[in-house]
Design goal:
Number of strands: 13
Largest sheet: 7 strands, mixed
Strand order of the largest sheet: 2-3-4-12-5-7-8
CATH class of one domain: Mainly Alpha
Distance between the termini: 8 Å
CATH topology of one domain: Hypothetical Oxidoreductase Yiak, Chain: A, domain 1
CATH superfamily of one domain: Malate/L-lactate/L-sulpholactate dehydrogenase, four-helix barrel
Helix content: 25-40%
Radius of gyration: 20 Å
Number of helices: 11
Order of helices and strands: EHHHEEHEHEEEEHEEHEHEHHEH
CATH architecture of one domain: Orthogonal Bundle
Structural class: alpha+beta
């Protein structure tokens, strides 16, 4: 049982079923509601609370405002064989992202490589899920993502917002669910991590944000401003900003994401306006087409193991590669999922609006 009064523990299956019913009540068909709820719960199970159930109130608000729409599927604007440009119609990213991934792997199977551009998608969730899906099918993939109208991140040297959190993800298949999955926001912290901190989670690192004067901060309120009880936090309401990771390097990579996923796809780059949405520029590769007998698959596995075998630094249990933290989190959280009390209360309120009873914590 949980002894921390600031957190509750939830059965992941019960939580997913509850959220599925909430999204159905909000207007989603069962299959779509299941895709959304499963994706969000899996993000928490993977240790990425920033992209998990904390986003449910925002999703419901965005559907009410018409910024995201239930019942949408991708449609091809251009289909050039190994290349396709997909329109998302502002549907839920949990559905559109999987459809784009399935199209990409299917085209890579036919052509050896595929380029899939997706525009006007609702929040795509944890991009690592799409890289994991491709890797499970045996493919490598690279994803550049932007968030049009997001306006969250200050460029290197800047004191005001000009960029989105602009995620980059690279997945490389490796054996039986031991894939290399590099998945990160180009901001020092993801916006969702600031949201989790605002609702009682771990505090951001000092310098993960800047205030209105460009001074380093660890206070999520510089991003959201003061939030009234029951109000859905707005990350564009505060006077400060997130900052790019790695100084000029992360800032440059974020701009590249805006240009590839936003400008090139036609989804739009980051700027003022209401209703943020995602663009994604993805490359899918069949490793077999460039393996002339040199044993690419074996080389991938051997090098990953070689990195893991490095002598750990003082205070470190073992060296991990990208993908290991998610696998470890799933083992630790598979029975009981921790949520901050404010996050849990927001989920209870979401269900209460549709007269849906929430599951009982602590089981």
């Amino acid at each position: 049982m949980n002894t921390d009064p600031q957190h509750v523990l939830l059965n992941p299956v019960e939580l997913g079923d509850y959220l599925c019913r909430v999204f159905e009540a909000a207007g989603a068909e069962h299959t779509e509601a299941l895709a959304i709820s499963s994706n969000l719960v899996d993000a928490n199970l993977s240790g990425h609370d920033s992209h998990g159930v904390v986003r449910v109130p925002r999703y419901l608000r965005d559907t009410e405002r018409g910024h995201m729409k239930f019942g949408q599927s991708v449609s091809a604007v251009i289909d050039g064989g190994a290349f396709t440009l997909l329109e998302g119609h502002f549907g839920f990213g949990q559905v559109l992202g999987r459809q784009a991934m399935e199209i990409g792997t299917r085209k890579a199977a036919e052509h050896g490589v595929a380029l899939v551009a997706l525009r006007n998608a609702g929040h795509l969730g944890r991009i690592g899920e799409w890289a994991e899906g491709a890797a499970d099918a045996g493919y490598a993939s690279i994803h550049f993502v932007n968030v049009a109208r997001s306006m969250l991140v200050a460029p290197f040297g800047g004191a005001e917002r000009r960029m989105s959190t602009a995620p980059v993800t690279i997945g490389i298949a490796n054996g039986d669910n031991d894939h290399f999955i590099l998945d990160f926001a180009t901001s020092r912290i993801a916006e969702g991590k600031a949201l989790v901190a605002l609702q009682g989670g771990p505090k951001p690192p000092q310098g993960g944000l800047v205030d209105e004067h460009g001074r380093p901060s660890d206070d999520p309120r510089v991003l959201y401003g003061e939030v009234a009880d029951g109000e859905v936090p707005n990350p564009r309401a505060g006077p400060g900003a997130l900052v790019a990771m790695g100084d000029h390097k992360g800032s440059g990579l974020a701009i590249a994401c805006e240009l590839l996923a936003g400008a090139l796809t036609g989804s739009g780059t980051c700027g003022p306006g209401q209703g943020p949405y995602n663009g994604m520029f993805s490359i899918y590769i069949d490793p077999a087409v460039i393996d002339d007998g040199h044993g690419a698959a074996a080389a991938v596995g051997q090098y990953i193991d070689y990195v893991r075998q490095a002598r750990p630094a003082d205070g470190v249990d073992s060296v991990m590669v990208p993908g290991d933290p998610e696998r470890r989190a799933r083992k630790l959280r598979k029975r009981l999922l921790p949520l901050s009390m404010p996050t849990w209360q927001s989920l209870v309120q979401a269900g209460a609006a549709y007269e849906i009873a929430a599951p009982t914590p602590g089981r």
